[in-house]
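Researcher: Go.
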Amino acid sequence: MVGPPRHPPVWTSDRAGVLFVLVGLWAVVPKILQTLTSAKYRVRVDQAEPPPTALTALATDVLTAALLGFCLLVVLDALRRNPRRDLLGLVLLLAPWLWVEVRSFTLDRGFAVADLVYPAVVVAVWLLRPGLRHLRLLGYLAGAVALVSVAIGVLLPDAGVFRASDGSVIDEEKAILPLGVLVGVFTHGNTLGQFLIMGFPLVALVQRRGVRAVLLAVSAFALLWSAARSTIAGAVALALVVAVLSLLPVARRTVPYRLVLWGAFGLVAVLPFVTTAPLAFTGRGAIWTRSLALWRDHPWVGNGSDFYSRIAQTSADLGGTVYHGHNEMVQLLVTGGVVLAVLVGALVLAAVHRAATVPGGGTVGVAILLALAAASLLEVSLLFDGGSVFDPVLLLPLATLLVGEPLGPDPAPDAAVAGSSRSTPADVAPLARARG
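Model: Structure:
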């Protein structure tokens, strides 16, 4: 007698989901624990941050081991099954990381276990080929980060609001709400703003309408409280552009998609070179000018990924709060030279191609890339060494776009919630639907 079919274990049924959850826990849990167990305050770039507490260090070690171990199991299983995969996307994703590590080796910067997180996750995504349903998991994660950050800001303002080492509130004359500047689980409002804006396209994928609306509202409030003005403006532009693109006929979206994305990333690349006023963009003009001048010392190979922390220890100090280039193109050139900029450029162009040619004209990929561009115009988001807190909202979506399943039209939310087995093509992308 034949019994009922067995459900396959998690390992075989949804390994990509397990990977995404592990990356989310690895990136966020230590930040939450450090926030709850240690003092948080602004430090200069030439000063050491408060060391991780014993609980934070333990969680970091355990989660790093779990994540790398899981990625290794994925690779070993793939060796047994020998799946066929296109190598181009994998090469494009790994090339910038490899160059950063090679340049660090030439500068005797050493190697850390955390440096393995980026390639391990990329290879695992390439082998598992996640899709839209896995990005929804990240939507819940991004929304949870917003919720927890707001809760910490309200209940534990000493830990959740930007403060100096003496405990005084720092508003830098830019606070939008009379509550200071929200940092939440991070150490700076700009970092929270970057995480939130890159999380918006993912939160908009959450299928339950009520949950999606709540998470989007909380994320928007957290972004406003963070006073991260560049990402606030970017979020508004993101919503408007995606809404307009979703109104275009599906058959005529490819060219507008390309033009919009090329324009967005072109602005990221060009802005520092056409900005001459030192005080432009709240002092970033001076940072860009001086950074690019130092880049010209080693134009092809750059000065290494730890350049900004090293220069802070010298008389050429760029300023106590200049932790990076405050623009993705500046950061790439200064740290990895023209070589790194070209490698990342090839990666971005491939991602743009995938987002613009998605079957059914869905806007998910476009929204993900536009959010990345917005988070990279006046800040730095793409990092290739030591892992990044942005991996759940940047690396995983980007890798999924490049080497995962095609991010086609999303099934109608109501049908999906009801358990419908059919996917209904939608002309309006999840971001646009979230508006209604």
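Model: The CA atoms of residues 251 and 361 lie 7 Å apart.
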